[in-house]
UniProtKB/TrEMBL annotation:
Pfam families: adh_short. It comes from the Eukaryota. GO terms for molecular function: oxidoreductase activity. This is Oxidoreductase. The gene is 20353265. Keywords: Oxidoreductase. PANTHER family: OXIDOREDUCTASE, SHORT-CHAIN DEHYDROGENASE_REDUCTASE FAMILY (AFU_ORTHOLOGUE AFUA_2G04560) (PTHR24320:SF154), RETINOL DEHYDROGENASE (PTHR24320). Belongs to the short-chain dehydrogenases/reductases (SDR) family.
Length: 313
C-alpha cells in the first residue's frame, strides 16, 4: 500500500483497548499519537521514563481528550519486572484488542541481563514473551466477543536476514556478543526471534491475527544513540540500497496499518510485512531456516523454559 495516510485511512477505534510497548519515545510515541486520533477507549503503554510518559499523556489529552492513557513502567530486559507488570495489567483489563510489541534496542555494547540472557534477546524478544504469557488470556477472551478483531503486531527488522546459518545459536545466549560485528549479529538474531515468535504465536492462537513487520529505517534515538561507526554503517547501507530514511511519524505507519487499517480478511496471520502493508512472505519462503516451522517451535519451547525459570514453574 503506497501513500498510506493514517489520518484518513484508519477506521474508528472507539471502544478498543490497546497496549504499546516502548511508547514513550520514537515510533512508539508516534504510534500512540496516531492511534489516539481515532478515539480508542484506552491506550496503555510501557516505558522506563516517567517524565517522558507524562509528556506523552499530556499530548494525547490535548489531541484526543476522551482517550484514556495509562503508563505501565517496565524494563523489558527484566523478566521479573515484565511479569509483575503483566500480571498487574491482566488483573485490571476487561478486554485487550491490540498489542503492539514495539520496544527494542539495537547494536548496544555487549551485556547480559539480570536473568542471564544476551541483552538484545532479553529486551527485544523475551520481555515481550513474558508480557504475552500473562496477557494472552485477555486477548483470547476479547477475541470471543461479538465483532472483535484482536491483533498482535510484532516489530522486527530486515536485519533478521542476517541470522546464523543454522538458526538461533542458543548456546551463546548466555553471554554478550563483543565487537562491531558481534553487536549487529546479536541484534539481527533477536529480530529473527521476533519473526519466528510471531509465526508460532499465529499458529498456536488462530483467533488472534498476529503479524511481524519492518517499520523501515527510521530516524529515532535508536539510530542516533549509536556510535560513529555504527551510524556510518547504517547510513552507507541505506544509501547503497537506496532505502529512504523515514521520520518517526512515517515509521509508525506500518504499525498503524497492521493494528487497524489493514483489512483482516486480506491479511495473513503469522506473515512478515514491509512498509506499508506489503506482504513479504517471499523473503521468508526463500530462507530455508526462517521458513522452517521447526525453528519457530524450538524458539517457543526455549522461551517457555526461560520464562518458567523466572516464575518458578
Amino acid at each position: 500500500m503506497t501513500g498510506f495516510d493514517p489520518d484518513t485511512q484508519m477506521p474508528s477505534l472507539q471502544g478498543k483497548v490497546i497496549l504499546v510497548t516502548g511508547g514513550t519515545a520514537g515510533i512508539g510515541r508516534t504510534t500512540i499519537l496516531g492511534l489516539a486520533k481515532h478515539q480508542p477507549a484506552h491506550i496503555y503503554f510501557t516505558g522506563r521514563s516517567a517524565s517522558s510518559a507524562d509528556g506523552l499523556t499530556a499530548e494525547v489529552r490535548k489531541l484526543a481528550p476522551a482517550v484514556q492513557t495509562t503508563f505501565v513502567p517496565a524494563d523489558l530486559a527484566s523478566l521479573a519486572a515484565c511479569g509483575d507488570a503483566a500480571r498487574a495489567l491482566a488483573g485490571r483489563l476487561t478486554r485487550l484488542d491490540v498489542m503492539i510489541c514495539n520496544a527494542g534496542i539495537m547494536a548496544v555494547p555487549p551485556a547480559v541481563s539480570a536473568d542471564g540472557h544476551e541483552i538484545h534477546m532479553a529486551t527485544n524478544h523475551l520481555g515481550h514473551a513474558m508480557l504475552l504469557r500473562h496477557l494472552l488470556p485477555v486477548l483470547e477472551a476479547t477475541a470471543r466477543l461479538p465483532g472483535a478483531d484482536v491483533r498482535v503486531v510484532v516489530l522486527t527488522s530486515t536485519a533478521w536476514r542476517g541470522h546464523p546459518s543454522n538458526g538461533i545459536t542458543y548456546g551463546r545466549l548466555g553471554s554478550g556478543y563483543s565487537g562491531f560485528v558481534g553487536r549487529w549479529q546479536a541484534y539481527g538474531q533477536s529480530k529473527f526471534a521476533n519473526l519466528l515468535y510471531a509465526a508460532e504465536l499465529a499458529r498456536r492462537y488462530p483467533a488472534i491475527l498476529t503479524v511481524a513487520l519492518q517499520p523501515g529505517v527510521v530516524s529515532t534515538g535508536l539510530i542516533g544513540g549509536l556510535g560513529f561507526w555504527d551510524r556510518a554503517m547504517v547510513a552507507t547501507s541505506t544509501a547503497l540500497l537506496r532505502i529512504p530514511t523515514l521520520t518517526p511519524e512515517q515509521g509508525s505507519h506500518n504499525s498503524l496499518w497492521a493494528a487497524a487499517a489493514g483489512k483482516r480478511a486480506d491479511m495473513v496471520s503469522g506473515a512478515f510485512y514491509m512498509p506499508v502493508g506489503q506482504l513479504a512472505s517471499h523473503l521468508v519462503a526463500k530462507d530455508k531456516v526462517a521458513s522452517d516451522p521447526g525453528q519457530a517451535a524450538r524458539l517457543w519451547e526455549w522461551t517457555e523454559k526461560a520464562l518458567d525459570r523466572v516464575e518458578g514453574n
